[in-house]
Amino acid sequence: MADDTKPEETPGPKIVPPTGEATKAAAASAPPTAAAHAAAKPAAPRPPAAPVPDLAGRTTSVASPGGAAAAAKPAPAAAKSTTRDADDSSPLLNRRAWMGLAWGAFSAASAAALAATGRFMFPNVLNEPPQQFKAGFPNEYGQGVDERWKEKFGIWIVRIADENVEPHGSGFYALFTICTHLGCTPNFLSAENKFKCPCHGSGYRTTGVNFEGPAPRPLERAKIGLSDDGQILVDKSRKFQYELGQWTDPDAFLKA
Question: With a threshold of 0.70, does the pTM exceed it?
Fold first, then answer.
């Protein structure tokens, strides 16, 4: 009878999946592969750089003047931009010009203020003609109105010989060349033998008495006499008014 019993199977070794450390150890002990051999080989040398063309179109090597020297030469600095800033929108001047203009105006104003301050330190001097002056000798005058002192001293010297016109008789008197209306300077009209103001038409006779126009009163007279040397001496600091009866004063008329 056949023996039906199967031989007892011997249990084989149990396969345990390798862990991380076991895998690293196995990889370290494993023989190098073809890929590892390829990675360990030195890299092949690179081909030489292509020659750099120079400005004339010829190829140059690195050692030639147009090669490495040209490559190492720094590029020229870019030209300074002439464009304005984004916030500079003035149609005439840029910001720098406006600043220069502002500083110039400030400097001019400061200089003017400094000059005005310096001028303030000095007193004002008004150069006026003297109040007294010698008008020459009596025999140098003819009859009528003499205008030689009108521009310099503002005086007319009048010589009169008609006793019916002047109560003092013949002689001299000095009239101020100032209209009694608004202070204009009248003109002597020899053809009409009168003083006429060009401003508002006031008219005066040769004696100084007003007779036409808006003048409210006659012309004023100045003190007149003789100096020590015999010349006519006029003193403008003393005035004589007709409406106050001052023309009869001896100092208002020089007899001759």
Answer: no
